[in-house]
Specification:
By secondary structure, the chain is α+β, with helices and mostly antiparallel strands. About 45% of the residues lie in helices and about 15% in strands. The chain has 2 domains: about 45 residues, no CATH class; about 130 residues, NADH Oxidase. It is built from 7 helices and 5 strands; from the N terminus they run H-H-H-H-E-H-E-H-E-E-H-E. Strands 1, 2, 3, 4 and 5 form a 5-stranded antiparallel beta sheet that branches. The site of flavin mononucleotide (FMN) has 10 residues, from strand 4.
């Protein structure tokens, strides 16, 4: 019950925190897409952005669990669910990954991360399924007021090896990505990616 209240409280806080500026950006993105479907889910999709700058406020294990559950709600080929999720809050581990992953330096400034891993033996779709799970995590993070970003391990052998070594990942399991999760400083804004030239009706 306590957990639900925390989650609900944060969600409500986030909703009331949607600033006029963010709301306008969301409206613009939706308007350009020529759709009038504007519900909170669609708004959240348009509000999501990669967040690489965080405050010092710490993310709890309970918060991470909420995000992992969102990850495990993703669709998977043949419903195989070929995934594993590792939550990391140990300072030393986060710092080591920050040192070893060239494009995940922000791990040094965040209190938590989720590593999304795929079981390569279980499904040939593992990286697709894990990508869907990662997007779910990113969207859930945005919706409850966290800032997160997908940082790649797969398909880079050196990055995979570094994450494997840091986290004791067994053979056959491959880390797709490391997702730092923190409270956003609020400087990053969603990008408007709508591109009419990539929109084809009926045929190319
Ligand atoms: C497969 C994939 C790998 C990515 N790898 C990294 C990465 O290693 N480091 C990083 O800072 N961002 C990484 N990103 C985030 C992208 O840079 C980001 O999504 C893109 O610039 C669009 O910005 P947005 O997420 O704010 O819409 C990755 C995103 C994807 C989908």
């Amino acid at each position: 019950m306590h957990f639900l209240n925390i989650v609900k409280g944060r969600t409500m806080q986030k909703e009331s925190n949607i600033t006029v500026e963010t709301q306008n950006e969301v409206n613009m993105a939706v308007k350009d897409g020529e759709t009038d479907i504007v519900n909170n889910t669609v708004k959240n999709i348009h509000a999501r952005k990669s967040v690489r700058k965080y405050t010092e406020q710490k993310v709890s294990e309970e918060d991470l669990l909420l995000l992992v559950k969102a990850g495990m709600a993703a669709p998977t080929g043949k419903n195989m669910k070929p995934w594993h999720f590792i939550t990391v809050r140990n300072r030393e581990t986060l710092d080591t990954m920050s040192e070893q992953l060239p494009y995940a330096k922000m791990l040094r400034n965040v209190s938590a991360a989720i590593v999304v891993c795929g079981d390569t033996q279980k499904s040939q779709y593992w990286y697709l399924d894990c990508s869907a799970a990662t997007q779910n995590i990113l969207l859930a993070a945005e919706s409850v007021g966290f800032g997160a970003v997908w940082t790649a391990a797969y398909p880079y052998e050196d990055r995979i090896a570094a994450v494997n070594a840091c986290l004791n990942i067994p053979e056959g399991i491959v880390p797709l990505c490391v997702i730092p999760v923190g409270y956003p400083q609020g400087t990053e804004k969603p990008k408007d990616k709508w591109d009419e030239t990539k929109y084809h009706k009926e045929k190319w």
